[in-house]
Amino acid sequence: MTEPNTGAKTIDDLVLDKLANDITEIQRAPAVTFAAFKATSDYYIQNANPETNTLEMTSKVADEMATAIFDAGAGVIVKEYGQVGQQVFEGMKTAKNKYSANSMAHILLQHHFGMSKNNLANALKEAKELSSEMLPTVYAELIKNYKQITLNDRVTRENFQLEDTDKVTGYLKKLVNANPILGRIELDEKMDLSNAKNAFVKMVSQMGRDYTFNISGQYARPGAPPAGH
């Protein structure tokens, strides 16, 4: 006989408000985005040929640029999100995992970026050379992956149970009713938990990065104060 899961978290509108607001924050991801952008731009400016405004992508250059990007991104993840100091971070940059040639800091970031440093370096080498106009493409895929992976992790952490399906779909119905921008979206009455979670992420993401959600107060609009504030 299966014992009831009495330790499961209660899912209600307040919990879903918090999840929705976290999703909008992940979409912005300003710290990681800026770190990757700055590392890419700084390396280019310091190493590009000023006469041709291009950077020849040798194996050495590709590895150095990939390392700079990963060091910058790992710094944000480890120091800002993990709340560890510079000394600990420097140790993680040099500490090796016995199963990998990459540092512990880079292995950590590999999960968040969905790409290893070596894979990024190999992709850079294929470009042969970079111009300033091409710089956004260097980190764009990393940031896209970072946001999607982080978003998936955040939703998974909520530990939804099968019995929460109706609560999630009920929240989405309130969201549709409160926001004309979603008026044409029809919700499947027979969604399973997986589809309900996917619909939640898709609908909240569609609202845009500037929305604050408070369905427990029957609204979600740009600049609205979060629940509990």
Structural class: mainly alpha
The rounded Rg comes to 21 Å
Arithmetic mean pLDDT? 79
Order of helices and strands: HHEHHHHEHHHEE
With strands numbered from the N-terminus, the spatial order across the biggest sheet is 1-2
Description:
The protein is mainly alpha-helical and 229 residues long. Helices cover 60% and strands 6% of the residues. The protein has nine helices and four strands. The chain has helices spanning 13-28, 30-47, 59-81, 86-94, 104-113, 117-126, 135-157, 165-178, 193-207; strands at 54-56, 129-131, 211-214, 219-222. The strands form two sheets. Strands 1-2 form a two-stranded antiparallel ribbon. A hairpin with a 4-residue loop joins strand 3 (211-214) and strand 4 (219-222). The protein is elongated and about 60 Å long. 27% of the residues are buried. The model is unreliable at 1-7 and 224-229 (pLDDT under 50).
Short account of what is shown:
The protein is mostly helical and 229 residues long.
Ordered list of secondary-structure elements with their pairings:
Layout lengths: L12 H16 L1 H18 L6 E3 L2 H23 L4 H9 L9 H10 L3 H10 L2 E3 L3 H23 L7 H14 L14 H15 L3 E4 L4 E4 L7
Antiparallel strand pairs: 1-2, 3-4
Helix pairs in contact: 1-7, 1-9, 2-3, 2-7, 3-5, 3-6, 8-9
Descriptive keywords:
mainly alpha, disordered N terminus, single chain, two-stranded antiparallel ribbon, 4 strands, 9 helices, elongated, 229 residues, disordered C terminus
